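General statements about sequence and structure are easier to judge against a single worked case. In the encoding step, the backbone of a single protein was reduced to a row of integers, each denoting a local shape. The record that follows shows the chain in one-letter code together with its fold in token form.
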Amino acid sequence: MKMDFHTHANLTKNVDFKVEEFIDKINEARESGLDAIALTEHFNTKNFKDIYKQLHAHFPYKGDYYDVDGFKVFTGIEIDIKEVGHILLVGNRRDILKVYDVLIPHLPDDNHISFKKLLDVVSKLELLKIGAHPFRSKTPLHHIDFNLLKQLDALDLNATDIYRQGITVRDEVEELAGNLDLPVIAGSDTHHHLQYGSVYNILFEEPSTVHEIKLMINAGSYEVKISPCLKEKVKAARLIKKVLKKQL
């Protein structure tokens, strides 16, 4: 199963979710060769809970994913923490919405939740905890206490960072992951559908729950793939996103 662990439903945080546009994106993800994604929309995006309300109204929910005509959309969220970095959580819809409710007081930029408090909040939930783009210049994670970082389940090898910083960022992520004894999984950071397939993971089985995914990752039962067209995919997506944002 080909899966992307870092994707977004909306072009930007400031637009309303439209299920018709989302279906188009999933069709494009399928065309790019993917079988599944983790939908990790920003926690401070406009009307976050409405995204899952609309998905629930239109698609069957099985295990920990929405079935969009055979394509698996696992539920998740991307969270800004006080220390400046971003954390991806993937899990059951119920648990994702439970975490979101805790985060409501922390939506303002000057009051983001601390990493330690977030870890405490999710400690008893069956969630896949991913350190997003740990070497991104504006939102790094590598500076955070290693004792906290070790409580993550994986680090994110991010297509946008490979595009911006070059393939050597993979070495940096893998070195940090090695120091933390964590696996590395790939996330495209797609906002516009052209970025799908820039990086992805080949899972050697077809999981239906996050628990199954975590077991596979821990066992190394997957492989990270980087598209030879990564630069073209990310560049095209970013250029079109820039144009569309001006029209909003």
